[in-house]
Specification:
It contains one helix and nine strands. The protein has a six-stranded antiparallel β-sheet with strand order 3-4-9-8-7-6. Strands 1-2-5 form a three-stranded antiparallel β-sheet, with no helix packed on it. The chain has one helix at about 30-35, and strands at about 1-5, 15, 20-25, 40-45, 50-55, 55-65, 65-75, 80-85, 90-95. The mean pLDDT is about 95. The protein is about 5% helix and about 55% strand. It is mainly beta.
Length: about 100
Amino acid sequence: MTRTAQCFCGSASISVSGEPRMHAICHCTDCKRRTGSAFGMSVYFLRSNVTETKGETLVYAVQRNNDDQENHFCKTCGATLFWYTAARPHLIGIAGGCF
């Protein structure tokens, strides 16, 4: 099965195959700020399961608690679409609400 997540304006998207490895609801400060909500909902897939990315994203890289993070967001609408963390190098996190 292939799933596609897209940003708010539809300019950027990411498609993944296979089943999620993990679902997460996080209420850390970073996720609260990333979403503007009380928590962030994430779906994690194997990085090797990414089948396509479309559109242009900008990157916000940060290090928190000795964990390098690379957040990709739409250059048009600013919606965070996906991210990578050094703590889970084989996974890609995708914003659950973008599916």
